[in-house]
Amino acid sequence: MAFLRFYCVRHGETINYYNYTFNGWTDVALSEKGRLQLEEAVEAIKDLKFDAIYSSDLQRASYGAKVLSNWTKVEHTQLEGFREMNFGDCEGMPYKKIVEVFPQIADDIVKPQNGDFTFPNGESATSFRERIDKHLSALLAKHPTGQIILFSHSGVMRAILASLLSLSNYAMWAFEQDFASLNVLDVHQGGGLNVRLVNGYLGPSGYRQSGPGFERLKVPAQS
Fold first, then answer.
1. Which domain CATH number covers 121?
2. In the predicted model, what is the mean pLDDT of the chain?
3. In three state form, how does the secondary structure of 12-29 look?
C-alpha cells in the first residue's frame, strides 16, 4: 500500500534556552549552536528528495527549512498553524518568573497529568491538540504519498506523534524532543503507521556520525 514518509524536525537551541524560557509564539532567535545543529541536520538529509518542505512561520523553525530549501531547490512553505503552544501571559517568561507570577499553574506546567490546564489568555492542552490535529489532517490530505518534511517545535512534534498513534493529551508529553531532533513516520493510505525514528539526535555533531539505521531511511517511499 502507498504511503507518505513524513519527516519532522524540531528547531535548534534558542538564545534564551538556559533560562528555561516559555517562548511559544514569541519569535525568538536561534543561538549560534542552534543554527549549527540545524545546518548539520540538513547536511544529513539533503539528498533524500523531498516533495515539499514546510515549517512554522517562527524564525527558529523556519531557519532549517530555508537552509534545506536552498540546498534542494524545493519550495519552502511556512504554516502558522504549526506554531508552538500559545503560552498567553506567560509568553517569554522564564519558568522561575512564571512560578512567581502565576503560582496556581506552576505544578501543571511540569506535571501535565494534573489536568487540562490553560495558560492565562493562552491555549489549553486540548485547544492546542485540536489546532495541530486540524492542520496535520490538511497536510496529510495534501500529501497522501511521497516524502515531505516539517520543521517545527517540541510541543507540535509531540502532538503529531500522539495524533498519529491515537494517544491522549496526557500521553503526548511523554515523548522527549531534543533540539534539532528528527522523527520519521510512514503514514499509510487507508490507515496504518510505521514509526521509523523518534527523537533521533546524537549531539552537536551527531548527524555526521549517523549509524547504519539511517541508511534505511534513504530507501524512497513507495508502494
1. 3.40.50.1240
2. 88
3. CCECCHHHCEECCCCCCC
